[in-house]
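Hi R.,

Here's the input for the arginine complex you asked about:
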Amino acid sequence: MRDAHPNAIYLKDYQQPDYWIEHTELTFELSDDHTLVTARLDIVRNSQRPASGCLTLQGQELELLSVALDGNELSVGEYQQDDESLTLQGLAERHQLTIRNRIYPQHNTALEGLYQSGNMYCTQCEAEGFRRITYYLDRPDVMSVFTTHVIADGERYPVLLSNGNPVAEQQLPDGRKKSSWHDPHKKPAYLFALVAGDLQVKQDTFTTMSGRQVTLKIFVEPQNIDKTDYALDALKRSMKWDEQSYGREYDLDIFMIVAVDDFNMGAMENKGLNIFNSSCVLANPATATDAAYQRIEAIVAHEYFHNWSGNRVTCRDWFQLSLKEGFTVFRDASFSADMNSATVKRIEDARLMRTVQFAEDAGPMAHPVQPDSFIEISNFYTVTIYEKGSEVVGMQRKILGAEGFRNGADLYFDRHDGQAVTIYDFTKAMEDANGVDLTLFKRWYKQAGTPQIQVSSDYDQARQQLQLTLTQRCPDTPGQSDKLPMWIPVQLGLLDSQGQDMAIQVEPASAWTAASQVLHLTEAEQTFVFHGVTERPVISFLRDFSAPVKVEFEQSRDELLFLLQHDSDGFNRWDAGQRLMLGWINDAMAGQFALDEAAVSVFRALLRDASLDPAMVTYLLSLPSEAYIAEFSADIDPQAIHQARQQVREALAAALTSEMAATYQRLQSDQPYAPQPQQMSARALKNLALGYWASQSAEGLQQAQQQFAAADNMTDQMAALQALIHSGERSLAQHYLDRFYQQWHNDVLVVNQWLSVQAGSAELASVEFVESLLQHEAFDWRNPNKVRAVIGAFAGQALCHFHATDGQGYRLLADAVIRLNGSNPQIAARLLGPLTKWKRLVPQYGGLMKAELQRIMAQPDLSKDVYEVVSKSLV
Ligand code: ARG
Ligand code: ZN
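And here is the predicted structure with arginine in place:
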């Protein structure tokens, strides 16, 4: 399979290629047992490089049939070939190179390149999947104009799609069908796509701001045609939003989305032909939860926004991945904030950063937003590249202001349209458009790890001054120590005793941006003086989660309670509540927890406060997850965390039962279901209330059963099912799980949710139980969604079982990794995440986790993907 020790590649070694490919003409002939690919490449020497006359193309698992140069077929001795490449020497300025090869999509289980999903063919080429289709310069700085012909049996594959605009469709003399596509925008091979199938289409149009009409099409397998409305609507809203917010419009006559069941990731932004994991695009009220609707809206937007941030302006090399991903996540987050609640979106983002990204930063796979090396690029589609990358873009907006940021984005798109560029071309555009120097800020891209800010304050009543001293430090990460201070935008406010924001004047004045209420921390230690502070303020620090940092700031429980009630910054209201709850959970771990009445009455009042957005109240009343608590612990003891959280949850539920019941009743609605923000918000709180209520009383439990039976939508049905599971009434839960499966066994996406709630539940998911799910008829190792629904949910959510003290949870995960290593290395490597954190756990667990990593390491034929993660984890 692979070398025993695959090599890393380094950013510092980047060089331009010796040749460009101006035009790429591809012909695919799909037949049952193989596919024939003919690639005609117009290559031209790169004048920036010495004239080597040498061209090495990448290729993997290809059966080479012939190579011709300018129409003359080469004999075997005239080129060199190995497992990963094809090399030609003695080339001149320009040539037409024609390569024919055979591939076997029906045996492709890695789901990279061209593969079969159900009855259809589809592709996934990012990052390096195109080399599994034909020999090519499979690197993002080689941008080419593509023409594609797809030939197949027209009866079985009436729909034949590729990038760009359709140019011809014909019936061949042998009865096969041929469809031809041309994409006028040059693009790297990772944006290539092909789809063939017997698909149905949902269609609409969109008129761009310049008045062009674009055809929109969503292709699905016939049984899913009633699940396309929402994605189509989200697409139109995304197109409009990008015009309004960034002044960017769509640039082809047609935009297509295809839903496929077997897909390694969420979705892919192939030019004009986005391919989606069906779970990220298909929805109707009966089968999709509100959370699924929101995810669909965000992902449809994300992939659409890539048309500019990624496709029109792409990455020079894969070390620049965050150039497109960080920026595009930032864009989809802004879109979701505009469509729904900005505060709630910010809370969700911070939760993800604090649980998953901070954990990545503190583990063996920690890497900068712009990494300097990798073994397998697929391992770098991470929360650091995506979400921290987005945070780094967001901080630039905080620093430059909304208008300055927009000017920078305009300059970036205009200056680099049609180019493959680096992250520093992005920051340069921000600098040039604003006349600022971001040198210091750019450290965010090069230094891995989560900076920690320590806050101390001193109030002087006589002088009406507040002194705030901030220190920052960033822990060592693999390959990086002694980090330099970062430029950290700290948004903050000072609350007076009425809970009102006080006016702020700071010294040095240059450290304060009034428009965004941001204090600029740029040194290892800095003291800021606030003047005219007429009374001792309560400090609201790092409002809106203005930087992805950890904060150490002693504030009393009274102050936290005060912030929870009064802060004008919704994010910090939530954060104060979480800090309060973390305090309780720590008390519980120390065996000295008691719920205090003052806090309970504040939570009661929040529940009753009809002026608040119910979704916001839902978050205010939700305890931090076990993963979140773990990230705020020095040595992680998963069982202790689980026990402590349960104890606090139980106490809170008991104290709030009647308010929860009342809240539930108040939010009952007889409006027909719609996936629309106000309704979703109300359902979120209603179902949170049901969960608490059902855990405490027979009436609540009764209500959950009634809601399960009466629900006309998946949000309510699933919430009722979860309430029944969490009530701990095991046989009752099992009864409803069986009913649910009866009702939904024909719907793959619903069955996956059913698998996932069970595998992720503390009440059910013992190792034995999860093993039985793996044997269930609904499970399939070849389908990534199912693997994630069972193994992913188990290791990521059912922490008290995954961390079973006998190590059997770790063994189950390691067995899954070993099994998938050969068939789908990307998924295998991704599943490893939880085991890589072993050093953070108390030794009792860490040792057992390490032993499983060592067992994986000892397997023969480790894929690059798995090898990289395991070897780095064992260092
Ligand atoms: N560019 C895609 C997206 O974020 C993800 C592609 C992931 N591919 C992979 N091989 N990991 O929108
Ligand atoms: Zn993306």
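One thing worth noting: The pocket of arginine (ligand 1) is lined by residues 126-127, 265, 267-269, 302-303, 325, 378, 381 (CB under 6 Å).

Cheers,
M.
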